[in-house]
Amino acid sequence: MKILVINAGSSSLKYQLIDMESEVVMAKGLCERIGIDGHLKHSPLVGDKPVFNEDVPMPTHSEAIAAVIDKLTSREYGVVGSMKEIDAVGHRVVHGGEKFASSVLISDEVMGAIEECIPFAPLHNPANITGINACRAVMGDVPMVAVFDTAFHQTMPGKAFMYAVPYEYYKKDGIRRYGFHGTSHRYVSARCAELMGKPIEELKIISCHMGNGSSICAIENGKSVDTSMGFTPLVGLPMGTRCGDLDAGVIQFIMNKYGYTIDEMLNILNKKSGVLGVSGVSSDFRDLDKAAGEGIDKAKLALDMFNYWVAKVAGSYAAAMNGVDAIVFTAGIGENSKETRKGICEYFGYLGVKLDEAANSKRGEDVMISTPDSKVKVFVIPTNEELVIARDTRDIVAG
């Protein structure tokens, strides 16, 4: 079975074609500047076909999907003979609210439910819907599956997902903690259990997904029991440009003093805050590391704040689960910044964590970076959300 995995943004579309017999990625690519002028980078990963990297007109996502299919099936760049070889499509959908606790076969009823979740993810769900509709228009009756970022966290108990506001806001409006990055947390926790040679049902794992957007998840017996992001992806850790946890009174104070509208304020909190806002340098941790090394104090402060918050939240999850067996680092920063991992692990002496400096210097592979006698094991595991989406799609379509 060959499955096309689609991750649609408002003006972009990422994809992978995966052969599920071997779980080998046959091709991957990125459509950018959809609705503007359009650009496609398509990389065949089997055979000796060349990379296509050129401008392609893409007024809408439908033209982007058509361009992807054209390259996947073309004589010069293709990896399949025809569309008939693509058995199903798996779509990443950011928000499923309380409606979806697992991946589902897409139907008109499911599309309606995804649309109802737009108020919870106004920047993401419309783009996901556009990508699904574009695929349906171009690919006809090929079965399609929706895989939700929020679904993994639907196992959280009420004490973890409820906010201490009047209960009616939860019942009437769905105000609660939903969490995100669920597909990533699900993948790395399962892989961690494999590496430890133990059933995930017997483990307590803290997963640290650290990228431009970052979240931590407490996973007990294979289920999410708490996570740092909330009603939106804005809260939790200080991130690349997002503020993380913040006293709501700060928002009122700044808005009143400077006359900002709520949209202007949210733009500041989403796009001008985080380590960018503190450092004044960059949202990229590589730039911050360099600046801190050059003696720029605010860059060092931003890095210290991030490490502190990861350690603090992870520590609270060790308490919430009454113990922890393993801590996992993943995503762009988690997989690539040995300095950040070391800075965080320095807080974990009370857990009996001992860092293996040589192992911590490795990149691009599954690796245990704690010493063999470390009481809590620490791993770096590159995430693979696309593979999770493809596996769910295969399982649902195969019945």
Notes on the structure:
The protein has 399 residues and is of the alpha/beta class. The chain folds into 2 domains: 2-148, 2-Layer Sandwich (Nucleotidyltransferase, domain 5); 198-380, Nucleotidyltransferase, domain 5 (2-Layer Sandwich). It has 15 helices and 14 strands. An 8-stranded mixed beta sheet has the order 5-4-3-2-1-6-8-7, sandwiched between helices. A 6-stranded mixed beta sheet has the order 11-10-9-12-14-13, sandwiched between helices. Helix 1 (61-73) crosses helix 3, helix 10 (285-293) crosses helix 11 (297-320) and helix 11 (297-320) packs across helix 13.
Which properties best describe this structure?
399 residues, Nucleotidyltransferase, domain 5, single chain, 15 helices, alpha/beta, 6-stranded mixed β-sheet, 2 domains, globular
In short:
With 399 residues, the protein is α/β, with parallel strands linked by helices. Helices cover 39% and strands 19% of the residues. The chain folds into two domains: 147 residues, ATPase, nucleotide binding domain (Nucleotidyltransferase, domain 5); 183 residues, ATPase, nucleotide binding domain (Nucleotidyltransferase, domain 5, 2-Layer Sandwich).
List the helices and strands and how they pair.
Blueprint: E1 2-8, E2 13-19, E3 24-32, E4 39-44, E5 52-55, H1 61-73, E6 88-93, E7 104-105, H2 108-116, H3 125-139, E8 144-148, H4 158-161, H5 167-173, H6 182-196, E9 204-210, E10 214-220, E11 223-227, H7 248-258, H8 262-271, H9 274-279, H10 285-293, H11 297-320, E12 326-330, H12 331-336, H13 338-345, H14 357-360, E13 367-368, E14 377-380, H15 385-398
Parallel strand pairs: 1-6, 6-8, 9-12, 12-14
Antiparallel strand pairs: 1-2, 2-3, 3-4, 4-5, 7-8, 9-10, 10-11, 13-14
Helix pairs in contact: 1-3, 10-11, 11-13
